[in-house]
Amino acid sequence: MDSVARNRRGILLMVAAMACYALNDAFVKLTTDQLRPGQIMAVRGLFATAMVAALAANAGELKNWRSMLSPVVGLRSLLEITTAATSVAALALAPLATVTVFMMTAPLMITVCAMTLGWERPRANRMLAAAIGFSGVLMVVQPFGASAWSGWGAALALLCAVSLAARDLLTRAMPADMPSVLIALATTAAVCLAGLALGMFEGAWQPLARLETVLLCAAAICAALGNYALIAACRGVDLSAVTPFRYSIVLWAILLGYFVWGERPTAAAALGIALITAAGLYTVYSGRSRG
Hints:
Number of helices: 12
Oligomer: single chain
Strand content: under 5%
Number of domains: 1
Shape: globular
Radius of gyration: 19 Å
Structural class: mainly alpha
Order of helices and strands: HHHHHHHHHHHH
Helix content: over 70%
Largest sheet: none
Number of strands: 0
């Protein structure tokens, strides 16, 4: 398969992965009216853990389960818990597209942190792009004007982005010989257990109806398929051609928000979404082309 065909395949897989992630969030959001965050995390985490455990067993990696007890895996699992908790809570309070776009500010946060900490050479153009992206956040939130949704939704969505950025920064530092499937198993199990623990402070959980069970099972399947498609999309391809299509998740989220909930961003919010997306795309391109 030539490079053009590989890149085309990678792009299609990346778009499919982002569609799966958007569907995962949509399925979770559909359950937030009936179920508490801890219950959602626990049930979805149970389905996800079962699927990842099956993958680990099939790959013959369960015999190396002690590697999951590493402190760095524990710290990453903690960040996965905060990411999942803030994501579920934000989805209950804010439009799907808004939460998705705020989560896509994580690459901008990573860029700023990497240059601030000296991991990458500071570049004015990338810092400016990050500043433009964060100004887009203000346009979406509209802190000095009327807001159609809770300010808590904005705060939780931004906290989710911060947690996501920290998780990805930590992932870069993890040993290369640590099996990815075991890292995924540790984090999904941790989220499930955290949901159970959170449930102790939420009061009585609602009985699981068939619809909510199916939705959370579908969410776990979509998340697993998204992870698989994302990995496949990035192998044997020109990443500078494929990576920008991560931002297709914004389009999927806007479409799902419109057709499922009738969500329509205001003109200012739409401009803010465009600024965040453009800034993210620019940092991807400039990051791949440096040197």
